[in-house]
Amino acid sequence: MLAAPIRNFASYAAGQLMRPPPGMEFDFSEPRGEPALIPPDSVSWRIFKNPVSLFIGGVAAVILELAEPSVRAGVWNHSSFRRDAMTRLRRTGFAAMMTVYGPRSAAEAMIARVVRMHDRVRGTTPSGVPYHANDQRLLDWVQATASYGFIEAYHQYVSPLTRDERSRAFAEGAAAARLYGATGAPTSLREWQEILAITEPGLEPSPTVFEFLDIMRSAPIVPPPLRPVQRLLIRAAVELTPPAIRRKLGLGAHGLSGTQRMVVKLLGRVAEKLPLHTAPPAQASVRMGLGADYLYRSPAQNETP
User: Which of 37, 106, 150, 246 has the fewest CB atoms found within 10 Å of its own CB?
Assistant: First the structure.
């Protein structure tokens, strides 16, 4: 009974989060044979193909980013999120797809453009602290929260990963992180826990976090009949936030009940088995000569006879 709405949500989420907005179209199946920044047999290629955990992890990452005063000021004062949340979401999702699945030359060019744009993002927080989007400390935190969000969402709601697999996923993002300038971003689960411990004392509650969550609840990511699923996944993202930070931000009552958690896991696991042949993960697999269903086959099926 749940298969149809889950399939519909996965299809719409993939369309909104994995494909670029108008004017930024890109064929991930070309040029044939050009590798990505991350190889096809990586943990990251498995993680980023799932639109349900991609959505949850992305929202969780932004919650953590907005808890940091300088990042919050940079994101909220210099982006179109409040005016046009959907376009911003699609740009961010496309950047993630390009970083993981895009041909290396295109990924490097995209990251270089982002770095140039970030260089213009400067200002002062309400408490008088100057910030610059290309500051390494801020870049490291943004990269860390993005990696944590996507990895942990997949681990919690789709398929459990071993500690080694989670560390490998952090390490796989290192090449892109360096291109962004996040040279101190975590490359293991242990390093994530270290940067979290260092950064946590400076995190603070803000009405901006609640404004962001309200925007995400009402943004037209899926058709109205599927909005309850959208709101449920936002609660799952809050639940993914480390407990101490969730309490500090005043989000303790915004997580999941036991039953809701079971439903989210079902959503994630069903989405894991729905091949999206026109989405970047499948196109990138074709580019590498692996077949559109490569990421949806078992390891045994992918073994060369």
Answer: 106
**Residue-wise pLDDT tens digits, 174-223:** 999 999 999 999 999 999 999 999 999 999 999 999 999 999 998 887 77
Query: Residue 24: how many CB atoms within 10 A of its CB?
Result: 14
**223 vs 192: CA distance, rounded Å:** 36
**At 297, which amino acid appears?**
R
- Of 95, 281, 110, 250, nearest to 179 (Cα)? 110
| Dihedral sign from CA coordinates of 148, 153, 155, 156 | positive
Q: Left if phi > 0, otherwise alpha if psi is -120 to 50, otherwise beta: which for 181?
A: left
Cα separation of the two ends of the chain:
38
d(CA 38, CA 42): 7
Residue corresponding to tokens 């090449």: 175
Residue-wise burial string across 165-203, b where 16 or more C-beta atoms lie within 10 A, e elsewhere:
bbbbbbbbbbbbbebbbbebbbbbbebbeebbeebeeeb
